[in-house]
Amino acid sequence: MSSQDALWLTMDRPNNLMVIDSLMWFNAPLNLDRVREVLMARFVTKFPVFSRRPVQVGNHWEWQPDPNFDLDFHLREVALPGDAGFAELQQWVGSQRSVPFDREHPLWTVSIVTNFRPDPLTLGSAVMIRSHHSIADGVRLTQVMVSLCDVEGDPTDVGKALRHSTTPVEIAVSTAAKLAAATTDVASTTTRTAVSFLTNPGKVVASLASAPAQASAILRNPARATDIVELVSSPENRPVNDVASTAKLLLAAPSVETVWSGPPQPAKGVAWAPMLSLAEVKRIRRATGTTVNDVLLGVVAGALTRYLAAHGEQSVDEVMWMVPVSVSPFDPDAGGHLGNHFALVAFRMPLGITDVHERLNEIHLRMDRIKASDEPLLTFSVQTVISRLPSSAAAGLTNYFANKALGVLTNVPGPTGPISFADVTVAGLLGWAPCSGDQAMTICIFSYNGQVSVGFGTDAALIPDPNLLADYFYEEFESMSAALQ
Question: Is 97 in a helix, a strand, or coil?
């Protein structure tokens, strides 16, 4: 077992398990015998780690074959009570997110949910796949889930190698070129900023008027001092963005104290919004000159703003999310090995911006800064170092960085066409990354077959009403769509 995989194995806590939960639902019943055939052929046999259990040998961990492996131990059939619809399915899924694995066996389960009606006239079914993070990261587990299915459209293509030079000469030449270009950019951008202020007295007055509030915000969260990069460099300036990314990670204060703050408890909840039209998301993208990801993050920002306002909190103007970024492509033919090959980058999400163009433009600029930086490489290197420390130190540092964020936010592009599992077409998919430290929420954005599903996974004690978040998300999307007609 790699040190990265072992890190996630040892990060389990009763109030935040390191388990990735995936869900598929269907508008028809599944055949349990057919499901069993598919799981053996495309899951257990293809990826041997699913028949292995973690065993500590000295100071390290190994994946060793389970001598008593039995598929039926991992495959369960669950009948929901009464005339169960999405509300009952959500309640059941939430209840499962706090159930730990038996470490004497491989760390995964597949539950076939029956007696589920996606609408009153349709008898459907659902599948919940729970896999420990030590087995694989979310990108690889998403690809495993897709590999269980027959794909009619193009499969998802997520995960790529990080850009890097390979020889000392290449590194030196590349670094010198970047620094020269960055220096020129800083000079020209700073000059433009100064001229803009000198020729616009109103802008100077507004900046002076807002200075006390900005200073107060920096005192509360020193990482906000990195906003100065917007005044002295263009979004494409990689060296400056790298400095800002490093400062952001080191200086960021603990997650802002607000209505969802506090120690998480074992009980969890989930909810998801009605599916969105991907075509409409793309129309908004074109209307605002942003990206699909920017639009969806903008809707999330609006939903969180609404939620805070409904709970009497209107002073929070940003929250930080940890966003997983794959650092190597998924290879289905790599000998069945999965593992963790991702970095967590920090995204400061602005809240409270009511103007849609202004909100999406700000998100777009912040995301461009992250994309035009080496933050994934920096954080992956930090994760690698942490994973090789003694377990107590590794846990402490992981929680230190985790507690700077509200939670984990994922956006996964799924198959563009319909897929089927065990001969039944998949109606929708979602998956939730785990939270760590004192994080209270995880959000999953998943696009599939022309639609976008968005799910909220929450701590039941700190955010007992996840359906309100889902409702606000859908309302915000409808409002954004109408505003840009």
Answer: coil
